[in-house]
Specification:
This protein is α/β, with parallel strands linked by helices and about 475 residues long. The chain folds into two domains: about 120 residues, Golgi alpha-mannosidase II (Immunoglobulin-like, Sandwich), CATH 2.60.40; about 325 residues, TIM Barrel. About 25% of the residues lie in helices and about 20% in strands. The chain has 14 helices and 23 strands. An eight-stranded parallel β-barrel has the order 2-3-6-11-12-13-14-15, surrounded by five helices. It has a six-stranded antiparallel sheet with strand order 16-17-18-23-20-21. Strands 1-19-22 form a three-stranded antiparallel sheet, with no helix packed on it. About 50% of the residues are buried.
Length: about 475
């Protein structure tokens, strides 16, 4: 069922008696109601006493990770700290051997069953390490209560042997057997398993003659139907708990739906499209989550491209499908993309994270951002906020070009929060909350300002200069 998103312009028209001001002094304008008593020493509630049942996923790689052959070991050393921070899933890069061998990031899959066990493409280990090291990583994650998500590339294959393809009238690299890019001997393939062939002329254009044809029974059997299919081998033998489906524009939604019905687990699709209607249609067709590119692009537009926070009030997937929207501010593709409209500037990253970690949706942290010394402590605090008091109905209280204020109204026993973003100087604003006669503080530590709500819940809050604050009640 779709959740109704309360449109902010309804509130900006009524304003609920709200007022806003630039505030260089650090104190609210005393001429505005309510007049708060002087700030007092903050006495925070213990956020650890609250658990809203949500979590956060870590994208545990970036493009061309280093050191080669040691990545699984490096991640194994980090999972304890990630679990303590509140991470409940890690998304790994494609784990199988690719055509580029020890240099492959896995998106050129050759042998789905070679996870660093067979010498082919001039290496035994993958870029990330050996099968034993992958097993150790998954075991370490599971011992910390963290699920492990496999990146699955189903559109295309690379690294096979050359054979004559009568439907291309040329040779194609579509022969996969023990001597040609498939040393495991599992899921051997020929040109008949790829587009075009005797049953289909469709070719997505990704790789000529190397796009898998999912209408072929042999392909279905080996990818997800057989007891030893890729899907069931990864789940039952390797221990993966879910799936990130790469480049789903290259094949029909029914493929993912059938896969999920066969093996289950968590599923999220990479459907690179900023139109929320397109993403929501895919959710409805497959039943799985999608990466919420609509939110990613609204954040980029609001914080970078147009410098206008009203873009954060426009349509996004999390508004209608909060349980299926996997939100993010960066990934391995956006960070290596040189087009400025496909990435959020570093100076705006933390405001973007503050948005996704306080709003509905399932947030993802990008590995390189988390490893940034300037970000990690702040991200840990936002993860804690996400997993505890980021709950309840969403109400946008105010939005203009340089201010955005959102209220999560909480639930019985959980106070919820206020998010205040400012992109142009220090601001103060008077808003209505659900907190009656409560003193509030910023739980990010970006401002020491505290305030007292009236009996009806009205309060004046502050945002730091070009930054964010997350308010909730004090003891």
């Amino acid at each position: 069922m779709k959740n109704k998103f309360l449109h902010p312009f309804l509130f900006s028209l009524l304003m609920l008696g709200a007022c806003s001001s630039d505030d260089d002094s650090g104190e609210p304008d005393p001429g505005k109601e309510p007049v708060n008593p002087p700030p007092v020493e903050a006495q925070p509630i213990n956020l650890a006493d609250y658990d809203n049942g949500t979590g956060v996923m870590m994208q545990a790689f970036y493009w061309d990770v280093e050191p080669r052959h040691e990545w699984w070991n490096l991640l194994t050393e980090k999972v304890d700290d990630w679990a303590n921070a509140g991470i409940d899933r890690i998304w790994l890069p494609p784990a199988s051997k690719g055509q580029s061998g020890g240099y492959s990031m896995g998106y050129d899959p050759s042998d789905y069953y070679d996870l660093g066990e067979y010498f082919q493409h001039e290496t035994t280990e993958t870029r990330f390490g050996s099968r034993e090291e992958l097993d150790n990583l998954i075991a370490a994650a599971h011992s910390n209560g963290i699920e492990v998500i496999a990146d699955i590339v189903l559109n295309h294959n690379s690294g096979g042997g050359k054979e004559w393809n009568p439907y291309v009238q040329d040779s194609t690299y579509t022969l996969f057997d023990e001597a040609h890019g498939n040393a495991s001997g599992m899921f051997n393939r020929t040109w008949e398993d790829f587009h075009p062939n005797n049953t289909s002329e469709y070719d997505s254009g990704y790789f000529l003659g190397q796009d898998l044809d999912h209408d072929v029974q042999h392909v279905q059997d080996w990818l997800w139907l057989n007891d030893n299919s890729v899907a069931k081998y990864y789940k039952n033998n390797v221990g993966f708990d879910g799936w990130r489906f790469d480049f789903v524009k290259g094949f029909s939604p029914w493929v993912v739906k059938d896969w999920m019905e066969s093996v289950g687990g968590f599923g999220v699709a990479e459907l690179w499209d900023g139109n929320p209607a397109v993403l929501e249609k895919y959710i409805e067709e497959t039943g799985i989550s999608v990466f919420d590119f609509s939110t990613f692009y609204k954040l980029e537009e609001a914080l970078d491209r147009y410098d206008d926070l009203t873009y954060l009030t426009r349509d996004m997937v999390w508004q209608n499908y909060p349980d299926k929207a996997v939100t993010f501010t960066a990934n391995h593709d956006t960070e290596k993309d040189t087009h400025e409209d496909n990435r959020i500037a570093a100076e705006n990253k933390m405001m973007a994270y503050a948005f996704i970690l306080t709003h509905p949706g399932y947030p993802t942290i990008f590995y390189s951002d988390y490893e940034n010394e300037q970000f990690q402590e702040k991200l840990n605090q936002l993860i804690l906020i996400n997993n505890t008091i980021a709950t309840g109905e969403v109400e946008v209280l105010f939005a203009d070009n340089d201010e955005y204020i959102m209220h999560r109204k909480g639930t019985d026993g959980n106070p919820g929060l206020l998010l205040y973003l400012s992109t142009n100087g220090r601001k103060s604003h008077t808003v209505e909350t659900t907190w009656s006669s409560k003193r509030v503080m910023d739980y990010t530590g970006n401002t020491e300002y505290t305030a007292l709500t009236t009996e009806s819940g009205v309060v004046t809050i502050q945002a730091p200069e070009e930054g964010y604050a997350v308010y909730s009640i004090m003891k």
